[in-house]
Amino acid sequence: MKKLGKVLHVSPVTKRLILRCSEQLLPKGYVVDATGFVVGKIDDVFGPVTRPYCAVKLARGIDPEKYVGSQLFVVDVAEKSKNLRKAY
């Protein structure tokens, strides 16, 4: 589990979480909160190469406003284990 970044806001049109990423990453992987609960998946990476932004497509039933300002983490698809709390 790697630190992904802090949630800046919710996109008003697509209802995706917009984060400022702490490092460069590939646009795949599960996004989890500090407790290991799956929040969604990385949908898009955009912006400058040195400090990109990413959009997170939320899992069903997740309230996006709950995560604004919070720190999220990423788990690579290949590393996803059974101890993550599923939301999908």
UniProtKB/TrEMBL annotation:
Transmembrane segments: none annotated. GO terms for biological process: pseudouridine synthesis; ribosome biogenesis. Signal peptide: none annotated. Pfam families: Gar1. InterPro entries: Gar1/Naf1_Cbf5-bd_sf, H/ACA_rnp_Gar1/Naf1, Transl_B-barrel_sf. This is H/ACA RNA-protein complex protein Gar1.
